[in-house]
Design a protein that fits this description.
Blueprint (H helix, E strand, L loop, with lengths): L1 E2 L6 E2 L15 E2 L23 H45 L19 H21 L2 H7 E8 L5 E3 H7 L8 E12 L2 E11 L4 E13 L2 E11 L2
Parallel strand pairs: 4-9
Antiparallel strand pairs: 1-2, 1-3, 4-5, 6-7, 7-8, 8-9
Helix pairs in contact: 2-3
């Protein structure tokens, strides 16, 4: 038997050297007959509740179910959007590839328009694009407006064809804007003649011209075959 001199507690563990209460070295003594045997002190060990892991696992299920539900809903919404927008996109592409009147992308088999107001609006638009292309020296745009058999006045006072026209055009940075006036159209089957005037505005002075432009309906669009222009005094 061993006893702690400080707390007077006794221990029967032969391997115990220090008091488990205050750390005092133990002294050895013979046990008395009436002595109470005290079992050696063993500190309790921590054991986590067995249900903790199960609770954590159960808490993950609502998140997994929520994420899966959000994914399914997002996929359904995406499919609905695609189903709604696809026909509109296809229609838009079809419209863009069949309604242009100057770039040669309209239906080549479309008949020439017969309504005079419609033709006037179409040719006035082409006339404006023609003027803009002349000022910017946009040869690609001019090539789509002019027919291959185009004949018009040359800067030297003679006549020139499409190739000479494209080679001679130069950019003009002095013109700020332009206006058309007295525009009229004469329609005869697949041919039309547009007459009128145009005034160019710049910082120095304004210059006005009278013009006569001739067009033919080919491959589903209007193309210029000839032009005349005279400066107004």
């Amino acid at each position: 038997m061993k006893r702690c001199p400080t707390c007077n507690r006794t221990f029967t563990d032969p391997n115990l050297v220090y008091c488990v209460e205050d750390g005092t070295p133990l002294s050895v003594e013979e046990p008395a007959e009436e002595a109470t045997v005290v079992s050696p002190y063993r500190p309790p060990s921590y054991v986590p509740p067995p249900a903790l892991h199960d609770k954590r696992r159960r808490r993950l299920w609502p998140w997994l179910v929520g994420l899966l539900g959000a994914f399914v809903i997002g996929a359904i919404v995406l499919l609905v959007v695609v189903a709604v927008m696809a026909p509109r996109f296809a229609k838009s592409v079809e419209t863009n590839t069949t309604t242009d009147t100057t770039d040669g992308t309209e239906n080549a088999n479309a008949p020439a328009p017969t309504d005079q107001d419609t033709v006037l609006a179409q040719l006035t638009q082409i006339e404006d694009e023609w003027t803009k292309a002349n000022i910017a020296a946009d040869k690609k745009k001019l090539a789509s407006i002019l027919a291959d058999d185009y004949v018009g006045p040359s800067p030297e006072g003679g006549l020139m064809g499409k190739a000479e026209y494209l080679n001679s055009v130069e950019q003009d940075t002095t013109i700020e804007k332009w206006e058309f006036h007295d525009i009229k159209v004469q329609l005869a089957g697949n041919r039309a003649t547009l007459t009128g005037g145009i005034t160019y505005f710049n910082q120095e002075k304004n210059i006005s011209y009278n013009f006569i432009d001739r067009f033919v309906w080919r491959n589903g669009r209007w193309q210029a075959t000839g032009s005349e222009i005279n400066r107004k005094e």
